[in-house]
Amino acid sequence: MLRAAARSAARTAVRSFGSNGKGVLVGAARNAYSTWTRTTPASKTGHAAVLVALGAAMGGSVAFAASPVQERSFIMVKPEGVQRGLVGDIIKRFEQRGYKLVGIKVLVPGTDLANVHYGEHEGKPFFPKLVDHITSGPVVAMVWEGKEVVKTGRAMIGATNPLASAPGTIRGDFAVDMGRNIVHGSDSVESAQREIALWFKPEELWDFVPTITKWVYE
């Protein structure tokens, strides 16, 4: 049905505008599709299917600007960051950089969760202190999305030792002690995927297109 409607529209455009008719229609389709996908849930409409149908009906493809690769990172404000009221400042920095918050929760991690999260450090002398600290109070677990968010997020956070962190980083501005360094950030794409799966269920993460996207990415 959609394909037939698109074919009919294409034929009408060609009759009305001559050889440029299809180009006129494609341009209008791009604008309409962009507006529609921003306001209509993808799960209810099948945006990809609509795009394919439009392209096939017009005897070719409708070319849209490629979306930037959307990487995700796990960022956690530790108990000291929550107690010191720094959650808003940390969120603000990621938002102002242009990253998108797709998941957030406040919780007191259990010992089992902490053991798995810090599993790579198990057996090291400082491991028990890590677990005790992260389970000592509420944390704010977040998932941020955007271009190279893992690498850039780590740069925004700063070095593990706050005293070695440059001014302007989160740790460089807000922390002085390595055992109270405010925030955790995934150190690789693989770690991010593992940590996100550990802390969040799929249904707790949201996929949407903010209206500011076109002002962040070209």
From TrEMBL:
It catalyses: a 2'-deoxyribonucleoside 5'-diphosphate + ATP = a 2'-deoxyribonucleoside 5'-triphosphate + ADP; a ribonucleoside 5'-diphosphate + ATP = a ribonucleoside 5'-triphosphate + ADP. Its EC number is 2.7.4.6. Its cofactor is Mg(2+). Signal peptide: none annotated. The active site is at 184 (pros-phosphohistidine intermediate). Keywords: ATP-binding, Kinase, Membrane, Nucleotide-binding, Transferase, Transmembrane, Transmembrane helix. Residues 70-207 form the Nucleoside diphosphate kinase-like domain. The chain crosses the membrane at residues 46-66. The keyword Acetylation does not apply. GO terms for molecular function: ATP binding; nucleoside diphosphate kinase activity. One of its GO terms (biological process) is UTP biosynthetic process. InterPro entries: NDK-like_dom, NDK-like_dom_sf, Nucleoside_diP_kinase, Nucleoside_diP_kinase_AS. ATP binds at residues 78, 126, 154, 160, 171, 181. Belongs to the NDK family. NCBIfam families: PRK00668.1 (NF001908). This is Nucleoside diphosphate kinase.
